[in-house]
Amino acid sequence: MIYPTRLSVAAAAAGAPVALLVAVSMPGQWYLGLAWPFAVILLTLADGFTGGRHGTVSLAIPRTASVGEPIAATVTARIAQGQAPSRAEVAIDAGPMIGTEDDGRLALLLDQKGVGAAHVPLQALRRGTARIGALWIRWRGPMGLTWRQQQADTPAEIAILPDIGPVREQGARLFQRHALEGLLTQARRGDGGEFETLVEFQPGMERRAIDWKGSARHGKLVAREFRTERNNQIVFAVDAGRQMAEPVAGLPRVDRAVTAMLLAAWVALKLGDRVALHAFDSRPRIASGMAGGIGAFADLQRLAARIDYGTDETNHTFALTSLASALNRRSMIVLLTEIVDTTQADFMVRAAQRLVEKHLLMVVVLRDEELESIADRAPATADDVGRAVTAAALLRERRVVIRRLGRLGVHVVEAEHDRVGERLVQAYTDLKRRNLL
Asked: Does the keyword Transmembrane apply (predicted)?
């Protein structure tokens, strides 16, 4: 497709005053005033057919990427069959799952052979399979009067997976900090509930660990030494409802939750526990069985990639009741959700009340930093006062729900979006060390 540039249109428009002046001054020869526009039209046609007549563009993109992370993509353009221009412009239809700069437009410098390549700044915004719809390339003629544009359909696809960067970066560090036994050089004993052996009582040991019958047999004080229990069941229940699709610092809440879940699951698998994943919104969507061993982490990651961005309201009662019916032994349930209003939270509290009778429940929520900033900001107008009062009321309701959950015996973790994974691992290992699992 060939169409004029702004320069061509401006040059043709500049001839209008000249044509008017000729028509006024020489009415009998008014047609001479059309010489300027006709000349511009002829030059535009010549410019369009003397420049490069065929262009190709391709995009090199990786097969997978992590949500919220930049994508290393390279676009290559080639102009042939004619006088090659010095630069070209490329546009990319990246779709809603990939973010672009400047609406996906990019300028390329071409060499003497008409070939050029450049890095494309792309960012993965949402999990799923992203498809690059089409690529466009256009270039100017030698005189800069015309654009020649061509479209190249591309079947490029990229699988956007949950971000496991924190697992790689923080996993080993957190594991070394919170690991309980077996995988470090010195195994920690005395923290668990499984009997290990009898040892001579030493100053500093707890008196309740003394085995009085054993002490009578041995003629000296001996104490029971325990080891940390393994093979506990950890169930991660991820809320994928409408509220969890709202962004926090540029990334949806559900993606923050999935990243924290993967980090905690990696540590739990390394510590010998078994993990399972459940995702729900208005009803359960994903339900996996218990899996153990670090090799199960890849399967868990693939399941986490299938967690969709729901548009339905969350039904905690249905989800937690279905989850409890599928568990045949005491388990630790980690619920990653959001506290929205008192009505929805009341249903969650009632479901949690039935759940804690048999299982250990932990609720993980993100701090609402936006509401906190509105409530703490010094008001400048009457509208600011209204917003601050509303934000403070919503925060009070949130605190009331958290306190109600705490009184039921639910362990609540409220953390910043960039520390939720670390706080979750810390809470999990603390409960494991206290033998509450």
From this structure: yes
